[in-house]
Amino acid sequence: MYNRRVFSVDQLWQRVKFYIIAAASDGTTRHFVQLFLRYVCCYLLGAGHPNHPFVRGCGLVSTQVFDREVEDPLASSQLLLLVATESDLIPIEHHWSITVI
After folding, report:
1. Residues 58, 16: Cα–Cα separation, whole Å
2. I need a labelling partner for 21 at 20 to 30 A (CA). Which of 27, 33, 35, 80 fits?
3. Quick check: 16 and 40 in contact, CB under 8 A?
4. Dihedral in degrees, nearest 10, Cα atoms 21, 9, 92, 97
5. pTM of the predicted model, to two decimals?
6. Which candidate, 22, 10, 12, 2, places its Cα nearest to that of 101?
7. Are the CB atoms for 43 and 76 separated by under 8 Å?
């Protein structure tokens, strides 16, 4: 049977598509795109959720879930999937992606 749960960061990362719709006039777009990609990758590779007042106070992750998933290497990937698709399950479509514009 097909498992629709996230079991690796790469499983989700390979489905994330980034599109740049505007470029900075000073030529810094490429630099900031690379920086953004690095931060997204670090977020996905990190364990648990970021320990930041916004994350703790926004209501997206309860204190109980935050504490339970503090060492979970897939917590960020699962949260990205939930926010992007409104489901914690991988879509059943063969060709799916998460688009970041």
Report:
1. 24
2. 80
3. yes
4. 10
5. 0.81
6. 22
7. yes
Q: How far is CA 94 from the centre of its chain?
A: 20
Of residues 60 and 17, more confidently modeled: 17
For 77, the token pair is 């990937």
| Residue ranges of domains in the chain | 9-100
Contact predicate 47/19, CB 8 Å: no
Q: Which two tokens stand for residue 8?
A: 């690796």
Segment (H or E) for 84: helix 75-85
Measured in degrees and rounded to the nearest 5, phi and psi for residue 16 equal -85, 125
Closest listed residue to residue 8, CA positions, set 87, 69, 51, 72: 72
Residues 30-89 have pLDDT tens digits of 999 999 999 999 999 999 988 888 888 887 788 898 999 999 999 999 989 998 999 999
